[in-house]
Specification:
By secondary structure, the chain is mainly alpha-helical. The protein contains 19 helices and four strands. The longest helix has about 30 residues. It is a multi-pass membrane protein.
């Protein structure tokens, strides 16, 4: 796999406190960093199979395998972890509303077909190049989308934390204290410390039910044939149900692909690397699509690049993709241990909520930084209107009574999330409104005046602006 150092920056020096090659820290510390990334993704990743009826162990296995496949496709340069996608929960619910074991494989078949759309978009990036395609995704669009991702997730963090605010606040305090006042390893593993510390407090106050742990076996296979999408192709194959699943679920991929671009933009901003150009969105989309297809075929949720792990990158400043691959190996190994999966499943929601309060906030903060550092000009009405509509549609629909906009096409109901509607509106307005002069990776244009730094802080940007 490619060396991390070969990835170009966006015209600024590397941050002095960032670590791009974790091998300099030694194998034990790298393992701890990997463990932290694994814990960061656990809460949300395991929540998806819990809500849909899919296997937790299979979810862990294909989160790990999908992450490794993504890294292989992206030349090992992008420090992204792939966990369970929430975007397809509505699709699973439409086909198997109560998690019926005989219907879930058909839903997985629909998700696998949705993964094929990633390959189509990846081909477009490969043929036309990022400059032409990214013209539709300038910072004034992607910034508010990233902000919306964090704010939409925020409600689940509050809901989880509210089950026991004391435990949740313990997680927050540990994370903040470790990151601000910690020294050495303590400073760069705040998430792991927050999870372990708040879990211990939760156990001490009686919030943890360990009965499932005692009953679980130590070793077991994470995948059962009857749970896979491949199992539907038998004597009892229901072609009508398969077609319904495909038609219902495939359109959801449009939203997740836009989210993917926003997430890769956020990772690029966090790591001071232009991953959209190198290794390229065609490679990251290919990796995400292949990982989703693989996971769905074997009965696991669709994969997506995880904002939780982007939050870990922002907090720890350890940007070496090798650390994320270590996290993937941990997930794979632990998928064969039902007892460990039971320990994680026993983690109370208040612990997850406390950690998520910080991580989800970091996602939105990255979106704000993307706007600031790219110097999006909000004295221009077009930029104000685009950002405003992306935010109000994404958040307004997400928190409405319906939670989505339902469109009936040929008797099939297609549900569009707030993030999907907001993203589509932002892209359409950016194209339609006058002043669409943004050129990806170049100075000037309607969204940025001057260089396009992806790393730094507000003071750096103000100083650059003062120098002209």
């Amino acid at each position: 796999m490619g060396e991390t150092k070969s990835v170009p920056t966006m015209g600024v020096e590397d941050s002095p406190d960032a670590i791009y090659d974790a091998r300099t820290l030694g194998a034990p510390k790298m393992a701890v960093f990997g463990l932290q990334h694994m814990f960061a993704m656990f809460g949300a990743t395991i929540l998806v199979p819990t809500l849909t009826g899919l296997s937790v162990s299979a979810t862990l296995l294909f989160a790990g395998l999908g992450t490794l496949l993504f890294h292989f496709a992206s030349k090992g340069k992008v420090p992204a972890f792939l966990g369970s996608s929430f975007a397809f929960i509505a699709g699973y619910a439409a086909i198997a509303p109560n998690g019926e074991a005989d219907l879930l494989p058909y839903a997985c078949l629909g998700v696998a077909c949705a993964g094929l759309l990633y390959l189509v978009l990846a081909a477009l990036f490969r043929v036309f190049g990022p400059t032409r395609v990214m013209r539709f995704f300038p910072p004034v669009v992607t910034g508010p989308i990233v902000i919306s991702i964090g704010l939409i997730l925020a409600s689940s963090a509050i809901e989880n934390a509210s089950t026991n605010w004391l435990v949740a606040l313990v997680a927050v305090v540990i994370i903040v204290a470790a990151n601000i006042w910690g020294k050495g390893m303590v400073k760069i593993v705040p998430i792991l410390l927050g999870v372990v510390g708040s879990y211990a407090v939760a156990a001490a106050v009686g919030e943890v039910d360990f009965s499932g742990v005692a009953e679980a076996a130590w070793i077991g296979l994470p995948v059962a044939w009857n749970d896979t999408a491949l199992s539907v192709f038998g004597p009892n194959f229901d072609a009508g149900l398969a077609i319904t699943a495909v038609i219902t679920i495939v359109p959801l991929a449009f939203a997740t692909m836009i989210e993917h671009i926003g997430n890769v933009s956020a990772i690029s901003s966090t790591c001071n690397r232009n991953y959209i150009s190198e290794p390229g969105l065609h490679r990251t989309l290919l990796g995400d699509g292949l990982a989703t297809i693989l996971a769905a075929l074997f009965g696991a949720p669709a994969n997506t690049t995880y904002g939780e792990n982007t939050g870990v990158l922002a907090l720890t400043r350890v940007f070496d993709p090798r650390v994320v691959r270590i996290a993937a190996l941990f997930a794979i190994a632990l998928s064969f241990c039902p007892k460990f999966a039971a320990v994680i499943a026993a983690m109370p929601s208040c612990v997850i909520g406390g950690v998520s309060l910080v991580l989800y906030g970091m996602i939105s903060a990255v979106g704000i930084r993307n706007l600031v550092e790219n110097r999006v000009d909000f004295t221009k009405s077009r930029n104000v209107l685009i950002a405003a509509l992306v935010l109000v549609l994404s958040l307004g629909i997400a928190y409405s009574a319906a939670g989505a906009i339902v469109i009936v096409v040929g008797g099939i109901s297609v549900s569009l999330s707030g993030l999907a509607v907001g993203s589509i509106a932002g892209i359409a307005l950016n194209i339609a409104l006058p002043g669409h002069e943004y050129v990806f990776g170049e100075a000037g244009g309607s969204d940025a005046e001057g260089p396009l730094p992806l790393e730094g802080n507000l003071e750096d940007v103000e100083e650059m602006a003062a120098r002209g």
